[in-house]
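As agreed, record passed on underneath.
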Amino acid sequence: MLYPFDPASDETLAQYAEGLDDDYAAWPTWHTGNPLDGDQPTHVEMFTWNDDRAGWIGDKSNFEVARDLIRSAADEGRTDTVVSDEQVYECGGGSSAWDVAQLFVQVFEGGCEPDCPGTHAEECRPGCDPTAERDSHVFDDRDRTHGRQTGLLVREGDFRCYECLDTSFYEREANAADADQRCTYCKGPVFLTPAVIAELEADAGLCFGNECSGDCHGTRTYTAAFRTAVALAEYVKHDHPFIAEDDYYEQRHERFMANLDEALEDIRLHYPFDSSEDHDSICEFGRESFWELDQWEDAYVDWDDAREAYDAARREHFSDLGRTFMRNEIPGQLALLEAAGA
Protein backbone atom coordinates (compact mmCIF):
# COMPACT_ATOMS: atom_id res chain seq x y z
CA MET A 1 0.00 0.00 0.00
CA LEU A 2 1.32 3.42 -1.01
CA TYR A 3 0.33 6.15 1.42
CA PRO A 4 -0.18 9.75 0.21
CA PHE A 5 2.59 12.22 1.00
CA ASP A 6 2.50 16.02 1.20
CA PRO A 7 4.56 18.32 -1.07
CA ALA A 8 7.67 19.78 0.55
CA SER A 9 7.77 23.47 1.46
CA ASP A 10 10.21 25.88 -0.18
CA GLU A 11 12.12 26.09 3.10
CA THR A 12 12.52 22.32 3.24
CA LEU A 13 13.57 22.18 -0.42
CA ALA A 14 16.22 24.81 0.25
CA GLN A 15 17.57 22.81 3.20
CA TYR A 16 18.00 19.69 1.08
CA ALA A 17 19.51 21.75 -1.76
CA GLU A 18 22.32 22.76 0.59
CA GLY A 19 23.65 19.26 0.02
CA LEU A 20 25.20 20.60 -3.19
CA ASP A 21 27.89 22.16 -0.98
CA ASP A 22 28.79 18.81 0.60
CA ASP A 23 31.30 16.78 -1.42
CA TYR A 24 30.09 13.58 0.25
CA ALA A 25 26.40 14.24 -0.45
CA ALA A 26 26.56 15.78 -3.93
CA TRP A 27 27.28 14.45 -7.41
CA PRO A 28 29.56 14.85 -9.24
CA THR A 29 32.34 15.78 -6.80
CA TRP A 30 35.87 14.59 -6.12
CA HIS A 31 34.37 12.04 -3.71
CA THR A 32 31.33 10.78 -5.60
CA GLY A 33 32.05 11.17 -9.28
CA ASN A 34 35.55 12.38 -10.17
CA PRO A 35 34.25 15.45 -12.05
CA LEU A 36 36.15 17.22 -14.75
CA ASP A 37 37.84 20.49 -13.89
CA GLY A 38 35.24 23.21 -13.56
CA ASP A 39 32.27 20.88 -13.15
CA GLN A 40 29.84 21.92 -10.44
CA PRO A 41 27.68 19.48 -8.43
CA THR A 42 24.14 19.24 -9.79
CA HIS A 43 22.62 16.29 -7.87
CA VAL A 44 22.23 15.59 -4.14
CA GLU A 45 22.03 12.24 -2.37
CA MET A 46 18.45 11.44 -1.34
CA PHE A 47 18.33 7.71 -0.51
CA THR A 48 20.87 5.00 0.35
CA TRP A 49 20.96 1.38 1.45
CA ASN A 50 23.69 -1.11 2.35
CA ASP A 51 23.82 -3.96 -0.14
CA ASP A 52 24.71 -6.74 2.30
CA ARG A 53 23.09 -9.03 4.84
CA ALA A 54 23.46 -6.33 7.51
CA GLY A 55 21.50 -3.78 5.50
CA TRP A 56 17.95 -3.12 6.64
CA ILE A 57 15.34 -4.33 4.16
CA GLY A 58 13.25 -1.22 4.82
CA ASP A 59 16.03 0.95 3.38
CA LYS A 60 16.20 -1.23 0.28
CA SER A 61 12.44 -1.11 -0.19
CA ASN A 62 12.30 2.67 0.27
CA PHE A 63 15.27 3.11 -2.08
CA GLU A 64 13.69 1.14 -4.93
CA VAL A 65 10.15 2.48 -4.51
CA ALA A 66 11.42 6.07 -4.23
CA ARG A 67 13.62 5.64 -7.29
CA ASP A 68 10.66 4.55 -9.42
CA LEU A 69 8.38 7.31 -8.11
CA ILE A 70 11.05 9.98 -8.65
CA ARG A 71 11.72 8.81 -12.20
CA SER A 72 8.00 8.81 -12.92
CA ALA A 73 7.73 12.40 -11.67
CA ALA A 74 10.62 13.47 -13.90
CA ASP A 75 9.09 11.79 -16.96
CA GLU A 76 5.50 12.88 -16.37
CA GLY A 77 3.81 13.71 -19.67
CA ARG A 78 6.60 12.11 -21.72
CA THR A 79 6.85 8.82 -23.60
CA ASP A 80 10.59 8.42 -23.04
CA THR A 81 12.99 8.47 -20.10
CA VAL A 82 15.39 11.13 -21.34
CA VAL A 83 14.67 13.50 -18.45
CA SER A 84 14.80 10.92 -15.66
CA ASP A 85 17.98 9.41 -17.11
CA GLU A 86 19.60 12.82 -16.68
CA GLN A 87 18.02 13.90 -13.40
CA VAL A 88 18.16 10.61 -11.45
CA TYR A 89 21.56 8.97 -10.99
CA GLU A 90 21.98 5.63 -9.21
CA CYS A 91 25.35 4.22 -8.24
CA GLY A 92 26.62 1.38 -6.11
CA GLY A 93 24.43 -1.56 -5.25
CA GLY A 94 26.96 -4.10 -6.50
CA SER A 95 27.90 -7.43 -5.00
CA SER A 96 30.94 -6.41 -2.96
CA ALA A 97 30.83 -6.54 0.82
CA TRP A 98 29.52 -3.40 2.54
CA ASP A 99 28.60 -1.84 -0.79
CA VAL A 100 26.38 1.23 -0.47
CA ALA A 101 23.80 2.09 -3.10
CA GLN A 102 23.18 5.82 -3.54
CA LEU A 103 20.42 7.68 -5.33
CA PHE A 104 21.31 11.21 -6.47
CA VAL A 105 18.64 13.59 -7.79
CA GLN A 106 19.16 16.77 -9.81
CA VAL A 107 18.20 19.83 -7.77
CA PHE A 108 17.68 22.66 -10.26
CA GLU A 109 16.67 23.10 -13.86
CA GLY A 110 16.65 26.23 -15.97
CA GLY A 111 18.72 29.15 -14.74
CA CYS A 112 21.47 30.95 -16.59
CA GLU A 113 23.94 29.52 -19.05
CA PRO A 114 27.51 28.98 -17.80
CA ASP A 115 28.75 31.99 -19.80
CA CYS A 116 25.94 34.32 -18.67
CA PRO A 117 27.47 37.79 -18.10
CA GLY A 118 24.98 38.82 -15.44
CA THR A 119 22.02 41.16 -15.09
CA HIS A 120 21.99 44.77 -16.23
CA ALA A 121 19.51 47.46 -15.41
CA GLU A 122 19.13 51.23 -15.26
CA GLU A 123 21.39 51.42 -12.21
CA CYS A 124 24.32 49.97 -14.15
CA ARG A 125 27.38 52.13 -14.40
CA PRO A 126 27.47 54.08 -17.69
CA GLY A 127 29.43 52.13 -20.25
CA CYS A 128 28.79 48.77 -18.54
CA ASP A 129 29.31 46.16 -21.26
CA PRO A 130 29.16 42.52 -20.13
CA THR A 131 30.54 41.24 -23.42
CA ALA A 132 33.52 43.60 -23.51
CA GLU A 133 37.06 42.25 -23.18
CA ARG A 134 39.10 43.10 -20.11
CA ASP A 135 41.24 45.59 -22.04
CA SER A 136 38.16 47.73 -22.75
CA HIS A 137 38.98 49.53 -19.47
CA VAL A 138 35.47 49.08 -18.10
CA PHE A 139 35.82 49.21 -14.31
CA ASP A 140 34.66 46.05 -12.59
CA ASP A 141 34.97 44.37 -9.19
CA ARG A 142 38.56 43.39 -9.84
CA ASP A 143 39.40 47.00 -10.65
CA ARG A 144 37.91 48.07 -7.36
CA THR A 145 39.97 45.51 -5.46
CA HIS A 146 43.17 46.65 -7.14
CA GLY A 147 42.26 50.29 -6.89
CA ARG A 148 42.12 50.25 -3.11
CA GLN A 149 45.86 49.56 -3.07
CA THR A 150 48.31 52.33 -3.92
CA GLY A 151 52.05 52.16 -4.43
CA LEU A 152 51.92 48.76 -6.18
CA LEU A 153 55.21 47.30 -7.37
CA VAL A 154 55.68 47.12 -11.12
CA ARG A 155 58.46 46.34 -13.52
CA GLU A 156 59.50 49.10 -15.87
CA GLY A 157 57.84 48.53 -19.24
CA ASP A 158 55.93 45.52 -17.98
CA PHE A 159 53.28 46.85 -15.65
CA ARG A 160 52.03 44.40 -13.09
CA CYS A 161 49.42 44.89 -10.42
CA TYR A 162 49.93 43.58 -6.91
CA GLU A 163 48.19 40.26 -7.58
CA CYS A 164 50.18 39.50 -10.73
CA LEU A 165 53.50 40.80 -9.41
CA ASP A 166 56.69 38.74 -9.62
CA THR A 167 58.71 40.22 -6.77
CA SER A 168 61.98 39.12 -8.35
CA PHE A 169 61.63 41.71 -11.08
CA TYR A 170 60.74 45.29 -10.34
CA GLU A 171 62.45 48.66 -10.58
CA ARG A 172 60.09 51.13 -8.91
CA GLU A 173 56.68 51.59 -7.35
CA ALA A 174 53.74 52.84 -9.29
CA ASN A 175 52.95 56.50 -8.88
CA ALA A 176 50.38 59.04 -10.01
CA ALA A 177 52.03 59.27 -13.41
CA ASP A 178 51.07 55.63 -14.01
CA ALA A 179 47.36 56.20 -13.40
CA ASP A 180 46.45 55.22 -16.97
CA GLN A 181 48.55 52.06 -17.07
CA ARG A 182 46.89 48.66 -16.92
CA CYS A 183 48.32 45.35 -15.73
CA THR A 184 49.82 43.44 -18.64
CA TYR A 185 48.26 40.21 -17.42
CA CYS A 186 44.88 40.83 -15.81
CA LYS A 187 44.26 44.33 -17.24
CA GLY A 188 43.63 45.73 -13.76
CA PRO A 189 44.96 49.22 -12.93
CA VAL A 190 48.46 49.43 -11.52
CA PHE A 191 47.71 52.72 -9.78
CA LEU A 192 44.58 54.71 -9.02
CA THR A 193 44.52 58.18 -7.60
CA PRO A 194 42.68 58.75 -4.30
CA ALA A 195 39.90 60.57 -6.16
CA VAL A 196 39.27 57.61 -8.45
CA ILE A 197 39.31 55.24 -5.50
CA ALA A 198 36.70 57.37 -3.73
CA GLU A 199 34.53 57.31 -6.85
CA LEU A 200 34.71 53.54 -7.08
CA GLU A 201 33.86 53.19 -3.40
CA ALA A 202 30.79 55.35 -3.93
CA ASP A 203 29.73 53.12 -6.82
CA ALA A 204 30.19 49.91 -4.84
CA GLY A 205 26.49 49.13 -4.98
CA LEU A 206 26.21 49.51 -8.74
CA CYS A 207 26.13 46.68 -11.26
CA PHE A 208 29.37 46.19 -13.16
CA GLY A 209 28.03 43.32 -15.27
CA ASN A 210 30.84 40.83 -14.93
CA GLU A 211 29.43 37.94 -12.88
CA CYS A 212 26.36 35.71 -12.69
CA SER A 213 25.15 33.87 -9.61
CA GLY A 214 23.58 31.12 -11.71
CA ASP A 215 20.06 32.50 -11.54
CA CYS A 216 20.44 36.21 -12.16
CA HIS A 217 17.43 36.16 -14.51
CA GLY A 218 15.20 34.28 -12.05
CA THR A 219 14.50 31.32 -14.36
CA ARG A 220 15.95 28.56 -12.16
CA THR A 221 13.44 26.20 -10.48
CA TYR A 222 13.52 22.95 -8.53
CA THR A 223 13.06 19.87 -10.69
CA ALA A 224 9.92 17.78 -10.29
CA ALA A 225 12.21 14.86 -9.47
CA PHE A 226 13.81 16.77 -6.60
CA ARG A 227 10.46 17.95 -5.23
CA THR A 228 9.21 14.37 -5.19
CA ALA A 229 12.43 13.06 -3.65
CA VAL A 230 12.31 15.59 -0.80
CA ALA A 231 8.63 14.88 -0.14
CA LEU A 232 9.37 11.14 0.07
CA ALA A 233 12.40 11.65 2.31
CA GLU A 234 10.35 13.82 4.68
CA TYR A 235 7.54 11.26 4.68
CA VAL A 236 9.92 8.48 5.73
CA LYS A 237 11.56 10.74 8.29
CA HIS A 238 8.42 12.03 10.01
CA ASP A 239 5.35 10.00 9.02
CA HIS A 240 5.97 6.33 8.24
CA PRO A 241 9.08 4.15 7.98
CA PHE A 242 7.98 2.59 4.67
CA ILE A 243 6.96 4.34 1.47
CA ALA A 244 5.17 1.19 0.28
CA GLU A 245 4.43 -1.23 3.12
CA ASP A 246 3.42 -4.08 0.79
CA ASP A 247 6.75 -3.90 -0.98
CA TYR A 248 8.61 -4.01 2.32
CA TYR A 249 6.83 -7.14 3.55
CA GLU A 250 7.23 -8.83 0.18
CA GLN A 251 10.98 -8.18 0.16
CA ARG A 252 11.25 -9.24 3.78
CA HIS A 253 9.47 -12.53 3.00
CA GLU A 254 11.79 -13.21 0.07
CA ARG A 255 14.86 -12.54 2.21
CA PHE A 256 13.52 -14.72 5.03
CA MET A 257 12.88 -17.64 2.69
CA ALA A 258 16.38 -17.34 1.25
CA ASN A 259 17.91 -17.25 4.74
CA LEU A 260 15.76 -20.19 5.88
CA ASP A 261 16.71 -22.31 2.86
CA GLU A 262 20.36 -21.57 3.52
CA ALA A 263 20.05 -22.58 7.18
CA LEU A 264 18.15 -25.79 6.38
CA GLU A 265 20.67 -26.82 3.75
CA ASP A 266 23.43 -26.34 6.30
CA ILE A 267 21.56 -28.36 8.95
CA ARG A 268 20.96 -31.14 6.43
CA LEU A 269 24.72 -31.70 6.22
CA HIS A 270 24.64 -32.95 9.81
CA TYR A 271 22.56 -35.95 8.68
CA PRO A 272 24.56 -37.39 5.76
CA PHE A 273 22.50 -40.60 5.61
CA ASP A 274 19.19 -38.82 5.09
CA SER A 275 18.01 -38.87 1.50
CA SER A 276 16.71 -35.89 -0.47
CA GLU A 277 13.22 -37.35 -0.05
CA ASP A 278 13.75 -37.44 3.72
CA HIS A 279 14.84 -33.78 3.72
CA ASP A 280 11.83 -32.68 1.68
CA SER A 281 9.47 -34.57 3.98
CA ILE A 282 11.14 -33.11 7.07
CA CYS A 283 10.70 -29.58 5.68
CA GLU A 284 7.03 -30.34 5.06
CA PHE A 285 6.51 -31.60 8.61
CA GLY A 286 8.29 -28.54 10.01
CA ARG A 287 6.57 -25.96 7.81
CA GLU A 288 4.58 -24.32 10.61
CA SER A 289 7.53 -24.36 13.01
CA PHE A 290 9.75 -22.75 10.38
CA TRP A 291 7.22 -19.96 9.83
CA GLU A 292 7.46 -19.10 13.52
CA LEU A 293 11.16 -18.30 13.02
CA ASP A 294 10.22 -15.14 11.08
CA GLN A 295 10.53 -12.75 14.02
CA TRP A 296 13.19 -10.26 12.92
CA GLU A 297 12.83 -7.06 10.88
CA ASP A 298 15.86 -7.95 8.78
CA ALA A 299 14.52 -11.49 8.05
CA TYR A 300 17.32 -13.02 10.10
CA VAL A 301 17.07 -16.76 10.81
CA ASP A 302 18.63 -18.01 14.04
CA TRP A 303 20.54 -21.21 13.24
CA ASP A 304 20.01 -22.82 16.66
CA ASP A 305 16.27 -22.22 16.52
CA ALA A 306 16.16 -23.60 12.99
CA ARG A 307 18.10 -26.71 14.10
CA GLU A 308 15.70 -27.31 16.97
CA ALA A 309 12.67 -27.03 14.66
CA TYR A 310 14.34 -29.24 12.05
CA ASP A 311 15.16 -31.96 14.59
CA ALA A 312 11.58 -31.99 15.85
CA ALA A 313 10.28 -32.29 12.29
CA ARG A 314 12.85 -35.01 11.57
CA ARG A 315 11.62 -37.09 14.51
CA GLU A 316 8.07 -36.68 13.27
CA HIS A 317 9.12 -37.72 9.76
CA PHE A 318 10.76 -40.97 10.83
CA SER A 319 7.98 -41.75 13.29
CA ASP A 320 5.54 -41.43 10.42
CA LEU A 321 7.68 -43.76 8.33
CA GLY A 322 7.61 -46.30 11.16
CA ARG A 323 3.86 -46.11 11.54
CA THR A 324 3.40 -46.48 7.81
CA PHE A 325 5.66 -49.52 7.77
CA MET A 326 3.83 -51.18 10.65
CA ARG A 327 0.46 -50.66 8.98
CA ASN A 328 1.59 -52.43 5.82
CA GLU A 329 1.13 -56.18 5.37
CA ILE A 330 4.11 -58.36 6.28
CA PRO A 331 4.78 -61.10 3.68
CA GLY A 332 4.07 -64.62 5.04
CA GLN A 333 1.69 -63.49 7.76
CA LEU A 334 -2.08 -63.34 7.86
CA ALA A 335 -3.58 -59.92 7.35
CA LEU A 336 -5.94 -58.70 10.03
CA LEU A 337 -9.13 -57.47 8.44
CA GLU A 338 -11.93 -55.55 10.06
CA ALA A 339 -14.95 -57.75 10.56
CA ALA A 340 -17.86 -56.96 8.33
CA GLY A 341 -20.59 -55.05 10.09
CA ALA A 342 -18.37 -54.22 13.04
Summary: The radius of gyration is 37 Å.
